[in-house]
Design goal:
Structural class: mainly alpha
Largest sheet: 5 strands, parallel
Helix content: 55-70%
Oligomer: single chain
Length: 841
């Protein structure tokens, strides 16, 4: 029969399983001879075999070695003798080498069962099978606690039982000892969990004393792993296992990246705190290498103190939460704080400048969360808060978890204000980040208010020319634009670039970033061609200063393509994005958020260029990748769902588009809140689909309800608010009320000027409605006036809106010659496959 080797960390119940197996076999008559031997050392096993030889064979008790050999020989299968069924249990094997020459023989009538914390390869092969004993399943742990507490007339609510089982990591030994503690102290489960959550309390204080342990247990959970750590520390490379697990004890139990524990700060820690192994080695003070660090992890793995999976490097090391706590309990307060700072340094060293791998970023954030939970105070021991506290918040926001980023920076702002004072640069920096992510969550107006207040504090604390003051001015300018004041944002960025205090140099990344923002807000203010030209100039400087593969350079190429499309060159926008995408995949990776954004924009512009069916297909292909890489609730995932619904409507699937908007809207309300601009836009999209489907009154009613919310959240002049105003007037016009469009046109001409894009949109809409009302003469005159050449007018003659206007004019006039001339321009600008290239007037 096979020899069974039960392996697992201390406390999972290997000995109890072996005892139950042996008892069952004996009580059922399945064995004739049962031998239980402590395998803590070779001498202990030899003595156990000798004792069995004395009792079974009458061997000489004075010659231990001989008696042991005689018993092992007796276990050998023999012909012509009465068969004997035997079971040998070797409990708690400390070192596989101790069993060399002492394994019971393979026999069809015999069975061997070994329990050990070791997972060495030497325990397998030669008819031996390694069986991993794990933790209880959650339901098993809850059932066990419920039964034990009920037997002692100490019932607890199911939710508290489940919570306690999770707190203890479903470790059988911990569950048994915690239950005994509850019974002995008459403590309620909820109170015990409160004590357990207090990281200042040691684990030993929350378990029974040695004399009160249940089930004949010999040691507490707090002490069960100390011997294993000592043994792991003796394995090669000697002395590294203990400092390695001390570092891992401060990080995430569910997975620590290999790159963290092999980083330079981690290697320095293990080198400095290498324990003496008594060998007199001359390599005690030598710098530990990454290879040595991995071997130290393997030593811990062999003693079942960690799980080590090199094939999953992002979560290569897992440590049970109670092993971590027991390890931390052995540290002095000074060690705890110094090791926590080292752990933070290791996380920072492993964090890539560009988060191409979202899985790694997610694991790094989880490790910072664990470190903050166990050692937050230590992260403020340096003159400034550890940079990892800012890095994790930025990473949360960049991953689309803007609500979590807000919560993080809100807490960080409060902590830095109280610890460092309200005027400290890092307290101000935390407030800056908090304002930014509030804006990213949709509260652009609130971000502006927060940054205006912060700017005053910056000027007072640091002076008007301090770089942090200038950066706050930069952030404020950007959020003014997001709040709807595009022209004001552009003017603020121009003023910032011209300020003598801005002495960063023309090629400094921040200077290039300000130029990028200036180009953007010029475009948003209506100068799309100017924005595209500015991006083109910026791109050349970024390629020279940052390199062609820098994320900012790639981002500028993306924005340049977008503004080409906005300026009317939709075919050029598509071509530029098609050229950009392979470069982003090569430089950033296929799953990088910027790569996914480029795929989204390429699909969108393909739709604008006329390939609506292709755009829908591309967005449908993109969406599962975003859900897999980012999250179903990620900002960009929701944006893709919005544009997919929009494109379905453009493709003619009005019912499908409306259904998609109805499905999207509650998710946006839940994730972003009812006042986020994207939520408000989704309401507008749903209203539009209702109107296209024929419910013009319903569309107008929905937009009437939406408009006050947009005015309240974004202000009356925000582009989204202006679009809703136009949509409301348009659907009222569809119901016969063209006066609404006339009133809107007058208001926009007065407020925005006659050539502002939103004024031109209103003129376009009014003229279209007049044509639909069969006022062909008036409509034709209006189209002609709208198309009158004006060098200052934006958009230009090749813009799709102007081409549409020419199409409408030709249709109303019935002018075949004008339509033919238009067709040539449409094919040139839009391409021969565009739906609008070839519309018969």
């Amino acid at each position: 029969m096979l020899s069974q080797v039960l392996t697992g960390t201390g406390g999972v119940g290997k000995t109890q399983l072996a005892a139950d197996y042996a008892r069952t076999a004996w009580d059922s008559g399945g064995v004739d001879v049962l031998v239980w031997i402590s395998a803590s050392s070779r001498s202990a096993m030899t003595n156990g075999y000798a004792q069995a030889g004395v009792e079974v064979l009458g061997a000489d008790p004075t010659d231990t070695e001989k008696a042991a050999r005689e018993f092992l020989a007796w276990l050998e299968p023999k012909t012509g003798t009465k068969p004997c069924r035997w079971l040998v249990v070797l409990d708690d094997l400390a070192d596989p080498a101790d069993l060399r020459g002492l394994w019971p023989p393979a026999s069809p009538r015999g069975r061997t069962l070994v329990t050990t914390r070791r997972r060495d390869a030497a325990l397998t092969g030669a008819g031996r099978r390694l069986v991993h004993v794990g933790l209880f399943m959650p339901w098993e742990a809850a059932a066990y606690l419920t039964e034990v507490l009920a037997a002692h007339d100490h019932p607890e609510p199911a939710e508290q039982i489940n919570g306690l089982a999770a707190d203890l990591g479903y470790l059988p030994l911990a569950l048994a000892q915690a239950a005994a503690y509850l019974v002995d102290t008459e403590l309620a489960c909820t109170d015990y969990r409160e004590l357990f959550a207090d990281r200042m309390r040691k684990l030993a204080d929350l378990l029974p004393e040695s004399s009160s342990l249940p089930d004949d247990q010999a040691i507490t959970v707090a002490a069960t792993w100390s011997l294993s750590i000592e043994r792991a520390d003796q394995l090669r490379p000697a002395g590294l296992a203990r400092p390695m697990i001390q570092l891992a004890a401060l990080l995430d139990s569910n997975g620590i990246p290999a790159s963290v524990l092999t980083s330079q700060p981690a290697l320095g820690h293990v080198t400095e705190h290498r324990t003496s192994n008594g060998t007199g080695s001359t390599h005690q003070s030598a710098q530990v290498s990454a290879e040595d660090a991995v071997l130290a992890l393997r030593a811990l793995y062999r003693l079942s103190l960690i799980d080590h999976s090199p094939t999953t490097p992002h979560q290569a090391v897992r440590v049970h939460q109670l092993i971590q706590r027991a390890t931390r309990d052995t540290l002095t307060p000074d060690q705890h704080d110094r090791f926590a700072l080292t752990a933070a340094d290791a996380l920072s060293a492993a964090w890539p400048d560009v988060e191409r791998d979202t899985g790694l970023a997610r694991t790094l954030r989880a490790n910072v969360t664990a470190l903050v939970h166990t050692a937050e105070d230590a992260l403020y021991l340096r003159p400034t808060p550890h940079s990892v506290l800012f890095r994790v918040g930025q990473s949360l926001g960049q991953a689309g978890q803007v609500t979590a980023a807000i919560t993080h920076f809100d807490r960080l702002a409060d902590a830095t204000r109280h610890r460092l004072g309200p005027g400290h640069t890092h307290a101000l920096a935390a407030r800056n980040m908090l304002a930014r992510w509030r804006g990213m969550a949709g509260d652009a107006v609130g971000a502006v208010a927060a940054l205006e207040e912060l700017l005053a504090d910056h000027v007072r604390a640091l002076g008007p020319d301090h770089i942090d003051t200038l950066m706050t001015r930069r952030a404020l300018a950007g959020w003014r634009g997001e709040a709807g004041d595009a022209a004001g944002a552009a003017a603020a960025f121009e003023e910032l670039l011209a300020d003598p205090a801005w002495l960063l140099g023309p090629d400094a990344p921040d200077t290039l970033a300000v130029r990028d923002e200036l180009a953007r807000w010029r475009g948003e203010a209506g100068d799309a061609a100017g924005a595209a030209a500015a991006r083109k100039n910026l791109l050349a400087d970024q390629v020279r200063a940052l390199g062609p593969d820098h994320p900012n350079t790639l981002s500028t190429r993306h924005e340049l393509a977008r503004w080409r499309g906005v300026a009317g060159d939709v075919v050029g926008a598509v071509a530029a994005l098609e050229e950009l995408l392979p470069d982003q995949i090569r430089a950033l990776g296929p799953d990088h958020p910027d790569t996914l954004i480029a795929r989204h924009e390429l699909a969108r512009w393909r739709g604008v260029a006329g390939d609506v069916v292709g755009a829908v297909a591309a967005l449908e292909e993109l969406l599962p990748d975003q859900i897999r890489v980012l999250d179903p609730d990620h900002f960009h995932t929701l944006v893709t769902r919005y544009n997919l619904a929009t494109m379905r409507g453009v493709a003619g699937d009005t019912a499908g588009a409306a259904a998609a908007f109805e499905e999207l809207l509650p998710d946006q309300v839940r994730v972003m809140g009812p006042d986020h601009p994207n939520t408000l836009n989704a309401r507008g999209g749903l209203a539009a689909m209702r109107g296209v489907a024929g419910d013009t009154a319903g569309a107008a009613a929905a937009l009437e309800e939406l408009l006050p919310d947009q005015v309240r959240v974004m202000g009356p002049d925000h582009p989204d608010t202006l679009n809703t105003e136009f949509g409301l007037a348009w659907w009222r016009g569809a119901a016969g009320d063209t006066a609404a469009l006339e009133e809107l046109l007058a208001d926009r001409a007065r407020a925005l000027g006659p050539d502002h894009p939103h004024t031109l949109i209103a003129r376009f809409g009014l003229t279209r409605r007049r044509g639909d009302e069969r006022d062909a003469t008036a409509a034709a005159a209006a189209w002609k006036e709208l198309l009158a050449p004006d060098p200052a007018r934006v958009p230009g003659p090749d813009h799709p809106d102007n081409l549409n206007a020419r199409n409408e004019l030709a249709r109303l006039r019935g002018n075949a010659a004008a339509w033919k001339k238009l067709l040539v321009d449409q094919v040139r600008v839009l391409g021969p496959g565009h739906p609008h290239a070839g519309l018969d007037p």
